[in-house]
């Protein structure tokens, strides 16, 4: 290369551009065409402060991702299933309005979760008006862009980060722990749109890690 020759240098992506790319990545999944209702991080955060309804936030990611950080008050998919899953929602909706919000990294896995859950609940006309299923658009990545808190699980095992909260009313285990700036972005593609201030973790082989976790849950 000559003394005065030049080459392009990759420039850091502006936060606004990262947020736009993140939204475009989620929109490409087209869950709206499958009848999935989206919800924004700001709305979910506001719901967490409200009373008069039941809010269940389900983290459908792998345990390794959840170990890094979770949305405050979220319940793992494993704990959700153990407590009855769709039947739990129906039980709660018979008493008061229920909002169930699912999230993952950017909204693909949680969108699939919402589609499957909605099919199970489709025939339940008794709770149709009091039970609503939502996908957190942009999921945990959108949550970070909104500047909202994440919590780090306490202890080495994820269940140690959960405690029974309001057992008689909601029967849910909610994630608790110290605030953290760490977030698991699943893979390099998604890590590229995480806000600069966050400590990003990824799988080197994302799909393989997902499949291994899925097999563990079946056993």
What does this 3D model show about the protein?
The chain is α/β, with parallel strands linked by helices. It has a single domain (15-218), classed as Oxidized Rhodanese, domain 1, CATH 3.40.250.10. 36% of the residues lie in helices and 19% in strands. A five-stranded parallel sheet has the order 1-5-4-2-3. The termini are far apart. The model is unreliable at 155-172 (pLDDT under 50).
Short description:
36% of the residues lie in helices and 19% in strands.
Secondary structure elements and pairings:
Elements lengths: L14 H13 L9 E3 L1 H8 L5 E6 L3 H6 L6 E2 H6 L3 H8 L4 E6 L4 H14 L9 E6 L2 H7 L4 E2 L10 E4 L6 E4 L3 E2 L1 E3 L3 H4 L7 E3 L4 H13 L1
Parallel strand pairs: 1-5, 2-3, 2-4, 4-5, 10-11
Antiparallel strand pairs: 6-9, 7-8
Structural class: alpha/beta
Low-confidence stretches: 155-172
The N- to C-terminal Cα distance equals 58 Å
Shape: globular
Number of domains: 1
Number of helices: 9
Descriptive tags:
alpha/beta; single chain; Oxidized Rhodanese, domain 1; 9 helices; 219 residues
């Amino acid at each position: 290369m000559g003394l005065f020759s030049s080459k392009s240098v990759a420039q850091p992506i502006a936060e606004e551009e990262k947020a736009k790319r993140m939204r475009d990545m989620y929109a490409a999944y087209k869950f709206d065409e499958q009848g999935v209702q989206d919800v924004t991080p700001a709305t979910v955060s506001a719901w967490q402060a409200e009373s008069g309804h039941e809010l269940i936030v389900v983290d459908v990611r792998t345990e390794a991702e959840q170990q890094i950080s979770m949305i405050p008050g979220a319940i793992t998919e494993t704990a959700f299933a153990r407590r009855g899953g769709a039947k739990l929602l129906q039980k709660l909706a018979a008493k008061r309005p229920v909002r169930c919000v699912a999230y993952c990294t950017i909204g693909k896995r949680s969108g699939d979760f919402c589609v499957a859950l909605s099919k199970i609940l489709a025939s339940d006309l008794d709770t149709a008006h009091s039970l609503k299923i939502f996908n957190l658009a942009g999921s945990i990545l959108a949550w970070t862009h909104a500047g909202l808190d994440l919590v780090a699980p306490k202890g080495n095992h994820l269940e140690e980060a959960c405690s029974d909260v309001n057992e008689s009313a909601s029967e849910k285990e909610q994630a608790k722990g110290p605030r953290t700036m760490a977030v698991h972005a699943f893979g390099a593609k998604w890590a590229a749109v995480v806000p600069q201030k966050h400590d990003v973790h990824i799988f080197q082989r994302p799909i393989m890690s997902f499949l291994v976790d899925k097999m563990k849950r079946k056993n």
